[in-house]
Amino acid sequence: MDIRFSGQNIKITSGMKEHLEERLPKLEKYAPRIVEAHVFLKKEKYILKAEITLSAKDFHAFGLGEAKDNIFTAMDEAYERVEKQLKKFRAKSKDHHKQNSKKSAKVARALGMIEEESILPEDHPKIIRSSDFAAKPMSVEEASLQLEIASDSFLVFMNQDTNIVNVIHKRKDGNHGLIEPGF
After folding, report:
1. What are phi and psi of 166, to 5 degrees?
2. In the chain, where do the E strands start and end?
């Protein structure tokens, strides 16, 4: 883990660095894929503040600590807040009720708990992106004619009457089906 220190109106001593360089690597037991930690210490009038930001691939944690007399107290408070966030994300990603959820898998991947990139079973068809296109404004009748001459089984178009994206598709009975969003 790369740990960077910066300060504003305060001199960062080796004791301050050692204090956090000793504690921050312990957070890797909650999230082993932490790439970077940024510690920002500042003094505003009579208040000392410490901000800790942790970055992983798909995950960021932020903790702020304040103290009036001791910067180490502020650093410990910020550390505890970041640790609490990591524990919460780890617990969410281990939730068995949301195993198939895309977001919980993304959090789990960021925390290094799962290595595979796909949450779909192996026998599930793969999603392959074939092409980008712009939905052209046209009437439903014009879209039906375009679908007849096209080799595709569907056509996405902008309905010129409603200015909403519609889909027209070929049905098994030889007719065309129109899908209009209902929102």
Report:
1. -125, 165
2. 2-8, 36-44, 47-55, 60-67, 137-138, 154-159, 164-170, 176-179
User: What is the reported pTM?
Assistant: 0.52
- The reply to whether 21 and 104 lie within a common domain is yes
Alpha-carbon distance 36 to 56, whole Å? 7
Same domain, 8 and 98: yes
pLDDT tens-digit readout, 124-177: 777 676 666 677 788 989 988 888 888 888 888 888 888 888 999 999 898 999
Structurally, how many domains does the chain consist of? 2
What is the CB neighbour count within 10 angstroms for residue 45?
7
Number of H helices and E strands in the chain, helices first, is 4, 8
Residue 101, token pair as written in the block: 């959820």
